[in-house]
Specification:
The chain is an alpha/beta fold. The protein is built from 15 helices and 19 strands. The protein has helices at 20-35, 76-94, 98-114, 116-127, 131-155, 190-201, 215-228, 242-251, 264-275, 305-317, 337-349, 369-385, 415-418, 434-441, 457-466, and strands spanning 39-40, 43-45, 48-50, 55-60, 63-72, 167-175, 178-182, 205-208, 235-237, 255-261, 286-290, 295-299, 327-333, 387-390, 405-408, 425-431, 449-453, 471-474, 510-518.
Length: 519
């Protein structure tokens, strides 16, 4: 067990693609993935591969004429069967020693590590991530497995308690039961693997319901769990419409918890549905919901403005702004407002946009036609709400490309200041002073990430005290949380503050039993 002690965790290092061996490995993997484009995947219910009530295709957002994979539309009946089967297997899986579950998770980490380039390739081709963003997603999935394995090793040991005279007291952490794992498409590997790994290593049985934008990546991740030796009955896999099978999974009486990451709208719906007690249900369902953001970077007059502009550009346009942590508001002290814009715009102009599989592109497409239309509508609104400085349109080529867009002079009541856009659109707002900037940054119903750039220690203290977000960064960008270093989760409408990749994360998938024995 010492090999997995909490002190032994190290983040997986990112490979450098300027090195020939790494770029060759990626090119081979992209070719391998392309060679299996269009293959049909099955549902997996308690070990049985089966077809759904129909099929749907997932597309390459860089070139939507390419079908990446064909997937099953699971039915409500299949959702119910999956929950019943997971419930039936729970006693056996939960009784499997934690050491065994930890061993399987470490084996899964090793397989993901071996197949880094292949997973990167699927992330590039199905989610439109550029090479570096794909590498970060895959490495994060490995980190989650390694980190949660170590956390479970800690929780499996007896918790020290105050011992009463004449008694022996102990506290045991027990798994909950059947968990529904609902990840988004934007970190289709890391978030799916992190949520599933945490629940499984804690001894729960799970049903993974991936996003319909990225089901191929999800199916490949399931293969790894099974190859690592997780019993097929411990993990089922159901693709299909969130609204139909999602609702059936969440509302089933045997469902014990839901681990969701996605939009505010769907998260709140799940929370409400899970709160309704149905016939045959004997517990209060637990909901872990991580949702959207309207993340701000605050820029003080007393700072290196160019450095701040670099941080804003990276946070706003990395993965086309499709990160819950993306900076969508730059709130700038009026004394450096114009200077900030002068530093920012050349950086945005320089961003190279094109197909995600071509190495060297900074930005790829947004994930789908639907996402593209929604973002373009916001841009039209933004043009009325502020001053368009750059971008503001679709890029004329096959694929869902939107030019990186900066809209200045945006007021606090503007929709593009308040609503999550989830695309490459940055609103810039002028603040009277640092206090006013923090007040504007907090003027949102979200509270996920934020950053402040200032040299003044007093203002750093103020930001730490007043900036109401789950993940605050000082003098650096607001994206790129690392497992173990930046436990991740939001305040307010950004979620239940679950702090993925943090020391308390697994407790959400466990219940503690306190035992006192008279001796
Ligand atoms: P989404 O809410 O549309 O979908 C998320 C998942 O929910 C998908 O798997 C979808 O199929 C499923 N779903 C949809 N309706 C459902 C229902 N009725 N019942 C059960 N499941 C249902 O979100 P998305 O577009 O996939 O992801 C983008 C959103 O995720 C953004 O808002 C982003 O900020 C958020 N996000 C948050 C975090 C975080 O850690 N806070 C991380 C990544 C993404």
């Amino acid at each position: 067990m010492s090999a997995v002690g909490p002190g032994t965790f190290r983040n997986e290092s990112y490979r450098e693609f300027s090195l020939r061996e790494n770029s060759d490995s990626m090119r081979d993997a992209l070719q391998r993935a392309r060679n299996s484009f269009g293959r049909e995947s099955d549902l997996r219910i308690a070990g049985d591969a089966c077809k759904g009530g129909g099929t749907f295709a997932s597309l390459n957002p860089s070139r939507p004429s390419e079908i990446v994979g064909i997937h099953q539309s699971g039915t409500v009946e299949q959702a119910c069967t999956a929950v019943e089967a997971a419930h039936a297997y729970f006693p056996e899986w939960s009784a499997t020693p934690a050491t065994k579950r930890i061993e399987l998770l470490l084996r899964a980490a090793a397989i993901f590590r071996e197949r880094k380039s292949d997973f990167n390739a699927w992330l590039i081709l199905e989610a439109g991530k550029n090479w570096q963003e794909a590498e970060a997603d895959t490495c994060e999935a490995i980190d989650f497995c390694e980190y949660y394995a170590r956390l479970m090793a800690r929780l499996a040991k007896p918790e020290p308690l105050v011992q009463m005279p004449g008694e022996h007291g102990e506290l045991q952490y027990l798994p909950l039961g059947v968990g529904i794992i609902i990840p988004p498409w934007n970190f289709p590997l890391a978030i799916l693997v992190g949520m599933a790994a945490a629940a499984l290593v804690a001894g729960n049985t799970v049903i993974i319901k991936p996003s319909s934008e990225t089901p191929t990546i999800a199916a490949k991740a399931l293969d790894v769990f099974l190859e690592a030796g997780f019993p097929p009955r411990s993990v089922s896999f159901l693709t299909g419409s969130g609204a139909t099978i999602g609702d059936a999974l969440v509302s089933h009486p045997k469902t014990r918890f839901v681990s969701f990451t996605g939009s505010r709208e769907v998260g709140l719906h799940i929370n409400e549905l899970a709160a309704r007690t149905v016939k045959g249900q004997i517990w209060i369902k637990r909901v872990v919901a991580e949702m959207g953001g309207k993340d701000a970077i605050v820029i003080d007059a007393d700072t290196d403005v160019d450095l701040a502009a670099a941080g804003v550009a990276a946070s706003a346009f990395g993965y086309q702004g499709q990160k819950c942590s993306a900076c969508s508001r730059a709130i700038v002290h009026e004394d450096v407002y114009e200077e900030f814009l002068r530093c920012l715009l050349p950086r945005v102009e320089k961003l190279k946009q094109g197909p995600a599989d071509e190495f060297g592109n900074d930005m790829g497409p947004v994930v789908s036609e639907r996402a593209m239309k929604g973002i373009l509508e916001y841009i039209e609104t933004g043009k009325r709400e502020g001053r368009l400085l750059i971008g503001g349109e679709r890029v004329a080529r096959e694929g869902y490309y939107i030019a990186p867009t900066v809209i200045a002079d945006v007021g606090r009541d503007a929709r593009i200041f308040q609503e999550e856009i989830f695309g490459p659109v940055l609103a810039v707002t002028k603040a009277r002073d640092f206090n006013h900037a923090l007040e504007l940054a907090n003027d949102t119903e979200y509270g996920l990430t934020g950053a402040a750039y200032t040299r003044d220690p007093q203002k750093i203290r103020l930001a730490k005290e007043k900036f109401f977000v789950g993940n605050l960064y000082i003098n650096r960008k607001c994206t790129g949380a690392m497992v173990g270093a930046h436990p991740f989760g939001g305040f307010n409408m950004s979620g239940t503050d679950s702090k993925a990749g943090g020391p308390d994360y697994l407790l959400q998938f466990l219940q503690a039993k306190s035992i006192a024995e008279k001796v």
